[in-house]
Each structure stands twice: as C-alpha cells, then as structure tokens.
Amino acid sequence: MRIIFATHNKNKIIEVRQILGEVANDIVAKSELGIDFEPVETGKTFADNAELKAAGIRSYMLAHGMLRDDDIIMSDDSGLCVNYMFGLPGIYSARYLGEDTSYDVKNARIIHELRFAEGDERAAHFTCNICAVFADGRVFHTEGIFEGLIADEPKGENGFGYDPILYLPELGRTSAELTPEEKNSMSHRGKALRAMRDLLKKVFADDKKRGINQAAFPENEEVSGLVRPFQTILVVSDSHRDDKNLKKVLSRLGMIDYLIHLGDSEGTEGMIQQYAGDGVKCYFVQGNNDFFTELPRDIVAEFGKHKCFMTHGHYYGVNMDLNNLSEEAKSRGCDIAMFGHTHRPFLKIVNGVTCLNPGSISYPRQMDRRPSYMVIDISEDGEFTYHQVYLER
Ligand code: IMP
C-alpha cells in the first residue's frame, strides 16, 4: 500500500512517516512523484479543503495513469481558530493579512485584536483535518485539536506560524517553546494523524474480512484488483452553477469513465470537467438557462450495447409527456433517452425507449426534495445497470 501525502513541507512528511509508518511502508510526498498540481482551496471548512486537495490529486493521478489500486491519497488542512475573533483566521490562517505577510505581523495583529480580552476569552485552538481518499474513491476524515490561550506576547523560537502566540496554561509555555517531540505528542496534527492510523487499521481489517482491499495485505494473494464494473457513467442535471453536491459526488464516487450533464450547468462546464479529471470524458448539453452557449442541443453517443440520446428536454416538452422525446430518440436509432429540466428523477420505458432523468443535483423538485443523480454501470458485455442515488437534504 502506498500513501501519497499532499504536502511540500518536509517536516510534515517526516511526522507522517513516523506515525503512519505502522500501517504503510511506502509514504511519499506528492512532489516525489512529480505531481505539481495544486488544487484550489475553495472550501468553507478544514474538512472541505482537505478533501478538495486529496480528491483533486486522485483525479490528477487517475487522468495521468499514475493511480495504483493500492494508493491512498492523503492531505491535511489546518489553522488557528481564535474564539474572540469568531473562529478566525481559521481556514484562512495561511492567507490571513495576505499570504506573504510575515508571522511576526500576523501574530502581533491577533494579540492587538485581543487587547480587551481576558482569561477564557483568549481561548484559541489549532485544528487539523486529515482526509484520506482511496483509489477506489472511499473517503475518510479525522480531526485533531490543540487548545490554548492567545498569549500576551509572542514567545519561543521553535515551530512555525502561530506557534509563538498559542500559550498552553498547564505547561506555562507557548507552542513555540515546546521541543518538536513534545509538540507532536499533543498537537492537532499529531492527534489527527494518530486517529487516521487507528482508523486505517480498522478499515484494512474490515476490508480483509470482506476480501476487498487485499492491497494493504500483500501476503493475501487469492484476490487481486478491486472489483468494479467495466465502465461507469455518472449522469447529472440542472446544477445551475451550484456545484457543491456534484463535487461531493465526484470525490465519493471514485473512478468514473463518463460524466453526462443534461443541461443548465450555466457556464460551469470547465470547472466540472476539472473536478472530474482529464481522464473522464464529459458530455454537456444546452439547457434552457444556458444562455450564449455553444453547447450542443442534443448529443447521440454509444456506450456498451446502447445508443443514447441526450438532451435537456425543454425542446421536447418533457414537462407535459415523453412522447416527443421518445419518438425523437427512436428516429435517431437510440434505445435510451436521457433528459433533465423537470428536476425530478425518472426511469421508465416509454414507447419502447428507456427514458431517464437523474433529477437535479442541486435544486430537486420531487416530493422529498433530495438532490439526486444516477450512476450507470456498464458490464463487460455492454449491459447497463441503473442506480438512482439520493443525497441527504
Ligand atoms: P496548512 O494546513 O499546512 O496549509 O496550514 C495552514 C496554516 O495554519 C499555516 O500556514 C499556519 O499559519 C497555520 N498552522 C497550522 N498548523 C500550525 C501549527 O502547528 N503551528 C502554527 N501554525 C499552524
């Protein structure tokens, strides 16, 4: 099993090797594999950003033929949360007052912000979220926190960043006055890494029982390769510029071969292709809210044994009935018609054509209002299996 850790920081990788060495003998920094891809941290939480990084690198590796079945891509996101500042700088810790501003200045500013705060009002903590994305798409998170108070003045030469201003009352020292060993034993990152080590042990043991992730156990040679369908299509529609669910689905789903978006992506096609990764062939059609677009109105494509007609549906009156749609599909030699527009999941044979709508991934309109999408597994002999999937509201 190989762990690819998304960091440039040599100290981090040393700590990761010390702690995770127990569960993986091959731990490399992404730069050691020549990966210079830097996912953009657009999340609102540490967990979001950690997952964006790990899932983005997994997609990159998949697209570049570098992903092995036994790979785990791991990343962390951390920062300082100051209660008196409503949790800031938080996920913006590195960017606080500007990426290039020195920590002397950042630290002095935080101390100034807390000039009227006393006692417990000075409470603050470092948080670290670690995300592990398996090659098969499974995602796991652990989190650790390291609590203290904002010091009256910066102290200590060890560590980095905000260490000189996190005062640990029970030790009477700041985090920058700890030795690296002391800090690792109690820090947010140390805790999150140890929790990840323990979690991975459990996951591997469970996988071994079920006979799936043999990769972590090279001595188990009867099973090899992960069980996955021959090819997978993710079908979504009506995201209307809100791609957060779609991103979640892509990172959770793991390997897919095709992504079909049935309209109203509203200009986010490039972003969606980027989240999906270069290795995923994406199809987009024009929706009634895709103004000034050059996207095609309809697409006909073959997958496995089937020929599919893909369209948004407003040109065929799908809000009324599916007669026009199914007739058009038939006239183009298609046995499947995929559409969106209604924001309601649907799967039925109409006039001899399998008509399907994945529902809206962002703005569902069916009774229970759960965002939805469809996954189609294509078997080796080209048959389709449909899975209508719902997200929590
Ligand atoms: P990253 O998650 O490694 O990108 O860290 C984000 C930012 O959080 C760093 O640039 C630091 O400003 C801050 N930070 C995270 N962990 C620590 C720590 O252990 N000591 C001091 N600052 C930290």
Question: How would you describe the overall organization of this protein?
Answer:
It contains eight helices and 17 strands. Helices cover 25% and strands 26% of the residues. The chain has a seven-stranded mixed beta sheet, sandwiched between helices. A five-stranded mixed beta sheet has the order 10-9-8-16-17, covered by helices on one side. A five-stranded mixed beta sheet has the order 11-12-13-15-14, covered by helices on one side. Helix 1 crosses helix 5 (188-210). The longest helix is centred in the middle third of the chain and has 23 residues, at 188-210. With 393 residues, it is of the alpha/beta class. The structure holds inosinic acid. Residues 76-80, 93-94, 126, 159-163, 187 line the site of inosinic acid.
Rg is 25 Å
Helix fraction bin: 10-25%
- Work out the helix count: 8
Low-confidence stretches: 213-227
What is the H-and-E element order?
Answer: EHEHEHEEEEHHEHEHEEEHEEEEE
Mean pLDDT: 90
Global structural class? alpha/beta
Total strands: 17
N-to-C CA distance: 36 Å
The proportion of residues in beta strands is: 25-35%
Shape: elongated
Strand order, biggest sheet? 2-1-3-4-5-6-7
Largest sheet: 7 strands, mixed
Query: Which small-molecule species are bound to the chains here?
Result: inosinic acid
